[in-house]
Amino acid sequence: MERIYLDHAATTPVRPEVLEAMIPAYKNTFGNASSVYSWGREARKAIDDARAITADILGAEFNEIIFTGSGSEADNLAIKGAAWKQQHKGKHIITSAIEHHAVLDTVKWLEANGFDATYVPVDEDGLVSAAAVEEAIREDTILITIMHGNNEMGTIQPVEDIAVLAKDRGILFHTDAVQTVGSLPIHVKDMGVDMLSLAAHKFYGPKGVGALYVRKGVRLDPLIHGGAQERNRRAGTEDIPSIVGLTKALELADSERREVKPRLIAMRDRLIQGLEQIPDTKVNGHRDKRLPNNVNVCFRYIEGESLLLNLDMMGIAASSGSACTSGSLDPSHVLLAMGLSHEVAHGSLRLTLGRSSTEADVDYVLKHVPPIVKRLRDMSPLYQA
Amino acid sequence: MERIYLDHAATTPVRPEVLEAMIPAYKNTFGNASSVYSWGREARKAIDDARAITADILGAEFNEIIFTGSGSEADNLAIKGAAWKQQHKGKHIITSAIEHHAVLDTVKWLEANGFDATYVPVDEDGLVSAAAVEEAIREDTILITIMHGNNEMGTIQPVEDIAVLAKDRGILFHTDAVQTVGSLPIHVKDMGVDMLSLAAHKFYGPKGVGALYVRKGVRLDPLIHGGAQERNRRAGTEDIPSIVGLTKALELADSERREVKPRLIAMRDRLIQGLEQIPDTKVNGHRDKRLPNNVNVCFRYIEGESLLLNLDMMGIAASSGSACTSGSLDPSHVLLAMGLSHEVAHGSLRLTLGRSSTEADVDYVLKHVPPIVKRLRDMSPLYQA
Amino acid sequence: MYTDKVMDHFQNPRNVGEIANADGVGEEGNVRCGDIMKLWIKVEDGRIMDAKFKTFGCGAAIATSSMITEMVIGKTLEEAQEISNQAVAEALDGLPPVKMHCSNLAADALQKALDDYKAKQSA
Amino acid sequence: MYTDKVMDHFQNPRNVGEIANADGVGEEGNVRCGDIMKLWIKVEDGRIMDAKFKTFGCGAAIATSSMITEMVIGKTLEEAQEISNQAVAEALDGLPPVKMHCSNLAADALQKALDDYKAKQSA
Ligand SMILES: Cc1ncc(COP(=O)(O)O)c(C=O)c1O
Ligand SMILES: Cc1ncc(COP(=O)(O)O)c(C=O)c1O
């Protein structure tokens, strides 16, 4: 059977070129980069080279990049690190209602431990407004964290505007750019952010490695204490092959973006337009301010997991903010925050395209989704044909 | 020039068999293990299989193993996770003066944030006594964390006795076994610990992955918040190749231990006996309760880094608790805690053997160290021949 | 994650549909939580002769719905009364832990359909 | 981490040893911090004719010790007085940031040796 992977927002396969760059590091560059002997110096050089390239692509300086073990760790380090470091200055944090759980649950944990938080709402397109963020600012606000591109419905947030607000008031601003690094051109200085998270496995790099950009002068408590690695900001023996892999993947994504992005946008829009033809279907997220690879729709009267299982039977890998895939009872907090009812939100489908996606994949999806939706609706007590 | 790697306590190369097991995972098992579709189920199966094997080798149950991004992260999760979760019960933590910084700096950070700590001392062999731990216990003690094998001078601690104490009083007991897993047989139930940390790169597995054993019933706050991975205890998309690599490395270490360990001990003891012949030399650590691969000596009148550089010039990779390798001014906190003077502690040399070490390596070291020590002493204003 | 039996019932659900003039109807679940099952039964001589369902819900919800219709057809009302959620899950060779609550859906809908039948009889 | 020049001076330190009946001796550093340098100078007609050192310390400490002896030999006392720790580090093509303090060691020991010479002269 054909297998079509349309869940690139969840994770992507490691590109052969990336794995090829990692294998020599696994075989030869195994030393502890803190050591004075030859193996240590070789390891140090490999990390330094990777850091220089990563910094350069993101428009950052060499010492502004901290390698981490994941995107989630980068988010946790940024938020907890800034919160603890500034706790004597203030305890208020601003975030949005549609953040990834790596941000949301981190802020909630801080709330349970003496901090205070405001969750700014979004409009029906899933957009955070800079004005709403501005309104939420208090005397004791120490951190604003608003994501760049939303992982579920793809809306891209006005982080540049929020960065200006934050800067004017001397408040740190972090953005979770896990969905946009690799996909959109990112220049941290132009964006004006103080911190920015990314994860290699979202752009054909390995899992188990991410990075946090931290502007020079921004001080954080470490999340992982111990050795002096990463200039005392993230302890642990450096994972050189993964760092090399992240860098190689970022280089490739950066050099190919001009060619890949319009191709993705064309397929994305064809998918959206095709799926919209199905009756009682709602497109979620902003039409233009949208990740190039993200399609998100809700089919009324049906539930997401049963839709995913049917798609899987046709070889199509997709995702849903459906409650039943996560074991919780509530559907996606993102779709609910956009004003969707529980009922409608339960029937969501996310398709995220990638480098290997083809027009034939789009045809295949547009051919197989409508009968599946029909079949499930015929089985649904909520649906009257 | 010959290159002899004698810093296996710092890190080890990935074994070819381990890399061979990881490459198919990099190529094929890239799915997000939380997803319902085929790629996701394949990823889930790979992790489940790895977890089952890891648990089995350590004498744990399937759900008692949490994969982490490093040994440091495992230590931080155990200590911060237990501290925050139990903060309303008490705020006192007991540890030892000779822990790795991943434990020590974590406890110090908690001290700076409202917790209380006691650092139990060690004797001149580097041994923590269970009696000293018992004396330190207070009404509000919530956690005891004492390492298994010391990374610098190799002394193995009486964790089984401490585990009994802790259990009797209903206090959680964590041990940092980063230096012993892979090297000594570890059975968590026999040891009686509640939590145990390990890191794959210490036993020929990849960097960037570790694990924490958490006894069923022990509850922790996550260190990294976000997705529901690792049963809500460690968020982040699972790094399958690294987890597979950790497991393969553990399996190999476990099956070869009977053959490798006596060989290491024989070489270790020959090295110690040979280096002891050099005048004004002190052997550090317990002679018998000692990691099979650890040699640690202090040469009076000389400083560690210049010794390491000279060894590197002869192709020998070694380590020192010397201050100058870390950029701080104080020598090893471990050697100082054992009662050594600053002056003597500065002249420490650690040689840690590994699978590839040979008797010829031992000969080589025993031939080249004495003239280097002599040369440095002749240059030292502290030395009178 | 799901057993072959669950997937079989999910892919080929038995007895989907409605029964016109059913002797008992039961509905359980709610839209908020993402699963609703409606079950129709036909009773003759104290025995369930037919059962049909419609379900909005996840794979486990659909499979347990299908399975329970198979289980009740041919059973007496007393026998049907005894069908527990555990029994439905077992008949499917088990359900993942997070999905066990879905088996309540089917057992509860059946209970309501039986109650509805009794209420109609005594009306 | 170290430049070739540092490694050269570390591997082949110039002027190791002591000077019997030196005209000036300076010692700097302490055992706690892990570096001590002792510097002997021989002065003739206001000019440093010879210099020797002994150092307990890291690679940078030994290399800066060696370098400073090379730098002072042949210099007048006034010229020697002007040698800064920065100049020593530069002569070695730089030192890693964490090692910059080691260059103080050599410059300070030289200072002390010059002071010692002056004290002896005026005694
Ligand atoms: C005893 C001990 N604990 C913790 C660690 C930290 O492990 P990692 O550097 O892999 O995070 C190490 C090694 O560096 C160690 O030897
Ligand atoms: C927006 C966003 N933030 C954070 C994460 C967490 O990344 P990871 O799972 O690699 O830790 C993800 C992906 O899962 C994401 O999409």
Report on this model:
The complex is a heterotetramer, with two copies of chain A (385 residues) and two copies of chain C (123 residues). Chain A is built from 13 helices and twelve strands. By secondary structure, chain A is α/β, with parallel strands linked by helices. Chain A has two domains: 4-12 and 257-379, Aspartate Aminotransferase, domain 1, CATH 3.90.1150.10; 16-252, Aspartate Aminotransferase, domain 2 (3-Layer(aba) Sandwich), CATH 3.40.640.10. In chain A, strands 2-8-7-6-5-3-4 form a seven-stranded mixed β-sheet, sandwiched between helices. Chain A has a three-stranded antiparallel β-sheet with strand order 9-10-12. In chain A, strands 1-11 form a two-stranded parallel ribbon. In chain A, strand 6 (172-176), helix 7 (188-191) and strand 7 form a beta-alpha-beta unit. In chain A, helix 1 packs antiparallel against helix 9 (240-276) and helix 3 packs parallel to helix 4. The mean pLDDT of chain A is 96. With 123 residues, chain C is of the alpha+beta class. In chain C, 46% of the residues lie in helices and 22% in strands. Chain C has a three-stranded antiparallel β-sheet. In chain C, strand 2 and strand 3 form a beta hairpin. In chain C, helix 1 (4-11) crosses helix 2 (59-72) and helix 2 (59-72) packs across helix 5. Chain C is globular, with a radius of gyration of 13 Å. The chains are: A alpha/beta (385), C alpha+beta (123). The A-C interface holds A 301-306, 309, 313, 322-325, 327, 329-331, 341-343, 346, 378-382 and C 7, 10-11, 13, 16, 27, 31-38, 54-62, 98-99. The complex binds pyridoxal-5'-phosphate (2 copies). One pyridoxal-5'-phosphate (PLP) sits between chains B (70-72, 75, 100, 102, 147, 151, 176, 178-179, 199, 201) and A (226, 236-237).
The number of domains of chain A is 2
Report the CATH architecture of the largest domain in chain A.
3-Layer(aba) Sandwich
Low-confidence stretches of chain C: none
Radius of gyration of chain A: 21 Å
The shape of chain C, in one word, is: globular
Shape of chain A: globular
Largest sheet of chain C: 3 strands, antiparallel
**Order of helix and strand elements from N to C terminus of chain C:** HEEEHHHH
Question: What is the overall pLDDT average of chain A?
Answer: 96
- Main sheet specs of chain A: 7 strands, mixed
Determine the number of helices of chain C (DSSP H or I, runs of at least 4 residues).
Answer: 5
CATH class of the largest domain in chain A: Alpha Beta
Strands of chain C, total number: 3
Order of helices and strands of chain A: EHHEHEHEHEHEHEEHHEEHEHHEH
Strand order of the largest sheet of chain C: 1-2-3
At the fourth level of CATH, the homologous superfamily of the largest domain in chain A is: Type I PLP-dependent aspartate aminotransferase-like (Major domain)
Question: Which molecules are bound in this entry?
Answer: pyridoxal-5'-phosphate
| Share in helix of chain C | 40-55%
Could you please say which CATH topology of the largest domain in chain A applies here? Aspartate Aminotransferase, domain 2
Radius of gyration of CA atoms of chain C, rounded to a whole number: 13 Å
